[in-house]
Structure formats: structure tokens, C-alpha cells
TrEMBL record:
It is an enzyme of class 6 (ligase). A motif ('HIGH' region) lies at residues 48-57. Belongs to the class-I aminoacyl-tRNA synthetase family. TyrS type 2 subfamily. One of its GO terms (biological process) is tyrosyl-tRNA aminoacylation. This is Tyrosine--tRNA ligase. A motif ('KMSKS' region) lies at residues 234-238. Catalyzes the attachment of tyrosine to tRNA(Tyr) in a two-step reaction: tyrosine is first activated by ATP to form Tyr-AMP and then transferred to the acceptor end of tRNA(Tyr). GO terms for cellular component: cytosol. Its EC number is 6.1.1.1.
Length: 409
């Protein structure tokens, strides 16, 4: 863990904070705020639409940690209320809203994972929920808020423009989203707001609203959306191109070894503290060595006590077709066996957590993505026997997702 460095010269603070940043509105404002010598209030808003995080989320959490290490106070703002609206950023259609209960349940898991990167000392971490103030607004308050921004300015958002041009409906509540997010900055008196590049418009609304409410405008800082392991789309669990923030060290190591070569520079810049000359040196060398150093650096940052040598050795073993000893065990209830004493492979794939449904499991088998005992398993309608389960059958999806099946008599 880095020590808090309140007395670092402003130029050095700026150099650290600018790393990996796409938009900074404005650097002059940030310099002035830093030169004032007071801890800044740095806001990150997150709608907990999903309970799980991946390394794409780590990019912005690491930037928050940098602010913390410089002695500033970061505000983890959980959008429990705005998640019920659904952020339309980058969406081609209206997103189904969540209930307040769903968002708060997701938030609990979200915050636990954020603490893998963020410091927890109360002087550098504040956790808030925008339901605290948004839920209390009456209709008169909402009308006053909307009077501070024009429809024309809201429709300047690129995604809204595209939907209008394409004849795709935009619901009225979606037009309110940038205003509610901007009002969060007013309520929190934020000095800086962080976000992905898809949040630039929303964050600038907050900057404008603060001026309208007589506050000093926040600095807006955006970071890129990390491209996933497919090398094309942003990292996403739904696209299965992700590395989970809570993946065990060996799985995270293996995932980072699969990062497409053209993305190595971005991953080094956004997910490690390696100095640029060292990154340049690695990128000029053999890509396997660069992948190895990336994997070591990222895993060590999240798991300081991890056995990196063991994680690397496991990766090598699996890459050669081996089956690790320390794989997850899944107990299969004997009641799952049919009258013939067998159970379908598709059902076992789901029980093992390798796919979410029987249909997805059958598709996995059909596409030759499943192995049994290290060998491809091609039988879509296949069955495993009691004897096979008693022997501890090993299922494998892809290169490094294993499950050892144990029959629970």
C-alpha cells in the first residue's frame, strides 16, 4: 500500500493524475484546486446494475486510489435512485429499470469489491447513496431542476441524437438522467468527478449545474473503457471477454496472459504503476515476457500475498493440456441421477457453474468448448454415470475453467 503523500509538489501530483486520462476539463482548474492545499472531494458515481466487477472497473478505481494516496477524499456514490431510471449512455434503447431493493443489494457486493483497491480510512473514503437527496425531491423541486437546462442541450448527447435520427424512442425519464447525476455533484459539493469516456456529457452537466447553484465548478476527468480479451469490445461479463476483479490469482494470471498483443500498452498504463520507460522496454521485447510482467504486476496489486510463481506454473501446465490439482470441487446430489443411474452432461455443466442454462451448456458442447478429463466432449445429449461421478469427473471450459464433480451420496 502506498502511503498518503499530502506534500507532493503540485506538478508531480498532476503528472500522476494525468496518466491514462482522456478528458480533463480543465487542467488549469485542477491545478488551482491542488495549489489551494486542501483535500479535494473526488466523486465517482456508480449505478449498481450488476453485483460483480471486472478489471475494466479497476481502471477508474485505481485513479480514485491515486487521489486517496495524495491525501484527497474520494466519494463512492452509489446511484441507488438513479439506477431506477437507468443510465442511457451508449444505449440504443431504453434500459429496464431496477427496484430500489435490487440496486441496494447489488451495492453491497459492489462496495466490498471496490475495497480491494480503495483505502478504507474514513478521512479518504466517503460512501453515499443519491437516494438520500433525490428521493426527497418533490415535483416542484424537479420542475426547478429541469428549468436550469434546455432540451436542446440535453439532445446534444451523441446517443440521444443517434436514437432520434434512427427513429428509436427516447423515454422522458431518460432525459432526466443527466440532470439527476449532475444534481448529485451539487448535493455533494464535488471538486472533481471521475467517469468513463461515456460519462463526459453527464459529468459536464454537473459542472454546469454547480455554477447555476452558486458553487465552484467541478473538474471533470474521464478514463478510457478497457477493451476486453476479444480485442474489440469493451470488457463486459455479458460478452464473456472479461477478467473478474475477484477472480482467484491463478485465473487472473491466466486471463492476463491472453490479452491481445496490441492492447498490452493500454493494460500496462491503466492497470499498473510501471513507469513509461519500462513499459516501452517491455513492448519492444518479446510479447510473452511482456504478458508475464503484466500478469505479475496486476495480480500482485490485488493479491499482495499471492504466490505468483505457483500461478505462473499453473498457467504453463494448463497451456500444455494439464489439469491442475487445486481445482474447484462441485458436489452433485445423488437425487440428480435418473432411473438409469445417469445425469445429462448439460445439467452437470450448469451445476458446475460453467454455463447459466442447459441451452447454453448444449451450445458449449456443440461448439466443442467442453472437455471431460482433458479430452473434448462432443456428445450434446451425453450422460455421465454414477461410476464416473464417484471417480471425480473433471469438466473443463476453455483453457482454465475447471470443476471436479463429486457425487454426494
Amino acid at each position: 500500500m502506498n502511503e498518503i503523500r499530502r506534500n507532493l509538489p503540485v506538478d508531480e501530483q498532476l503528472q500522476l493524475l494525468r496518466r491514462g486520462v482522456v478528458d480533463l476539463v480543465s487542467e488549469e482548474d485542477l491545478r488551482r484546486k491542488l495549489e489551494a492545499g486542501k483535500p479535494l472531494r473526488v466523486k465517482l458515481g456508480a449505478d449498481p446494475t450488476r453485483p460483480d466487477l471486472h478489471l475494466g472497473h479497476a481502471v477508474i478505481l485505481r485513479k480514485m486510489r491515486q487521489f486517496q494516496d495524495l491525501g484527497h477524499r474520494v466519494i463512492m456514490l452509489i446511484g441507488d435512485f438513479t439506477a431506477m431510471i437507468g443510465d442511457p449512455s451508449g444505449k440504443s434503447k431504453t434500459r429496464p429499470p431496477l427496484t430500489l431493493e435490487e440496486t441496494r443489494a447489488n451495492a453491497k457486493s459492489y462496495l466490498e469489491q471496490c475495497r480491494l483497491i480503495l483505502r478504507s480510512e474514513p478521512e479518504v473514503l466517503e460512501i453515499r447513496y443519491n437516494g438520500e437527496w433525490l428521493e426527497k425531491l418533490g415535483f416542484e423541486d424537479v420542475i426547478r431542476l429541469t428549468s436550469r437546462y434546455t432540451v436542446a442541450r440535453i439532445l446534444e448527447r451523441d446517443d440521444f441524437t443517434k436514437r432520434l435520427q434512427g427513429g428509436v424512442p427516447i423515454a422522458m425519464h431518460e432525459l432526466l438522467y443527466p440532470l439527476t447525476q449532475g444534481y448529485d455533484s451539487v448535493a455533494l459539493r464535488a471538486d472533481v468527478e471521475l467517469g468513463g469516456t461515456d460519462q463526459l456529457f453527464n459529468n459536464l452537466v454537473g459542472r454546469a449545474l454547480q455554477r447555476d447553484y452558486g458553487q465552484e465548478a467541478q473538474v471533470v476527468m474521464t478514463l478510457p473503457l478497457l477493451v476486453g480479451l476479444d480485442g474489440t469490445e469493451k470488457m463486459s461479463k455479458s460478452l464473456d471477454n472479461y477478467i473478474g476483479l475477484t477472480d482467484p490469482p491463478h485465473a487472473m494470471f491466466a486471463g492476463l496472459m491472453k490479452v491481445p498483443d496490441p492492447l498490452l500498452g493500454n493494460y500496462f498504463t491503466l492497470l499498473t504503476d510501471l513507469p513509461q520507460p519500462r513499459i516501452d522496454e517491455l513492448l519492444a521485447g518479446h510479447p510473452v515476457a511482456a504478458h508475464r510482467e503484466l500478469a505479475r504486476a496486476v495480480v500482485a496489486s490485488l493479491y499482495p500475498d499471492a504466490d505468483l510463481a505457483a500461478a505462473e506454473e499453473r498457467f504453463r501446465s494448463v497451456a500444455k493440456g494439464g489439469i491442475p490439482d487445486d481445482i474447484r470441487e462441485v458436489r452433485v446430489p445423488a437425487a440428480e441421477l435418473g432411473e438409469a443411474g445417469t445425469v445429462s452432461m448439460a445439467k452437470l455443466v450448469v451445476l458446475a457453474g460453467l454455463e447459466p442454462s442447459n441451452g447454453a451448456a448444449r451450445k458449449l458442447i456443440q461448439n466443442r468448448g467442453l472437455k471431460l478429463g482433458g479430452e473434448p466432449y462432443p456428445e450434446v445429449q451425453g450422460q455421465l454415470t454414477r461410476a464416473q461421478l464417484q471417480a471425480g469427473a473433471v469438466l473443463q471450459k476453455g483453457k482454465d475453467k475447471f470443476a471436479r464433480l463429486i457425487l454426494a451420496e
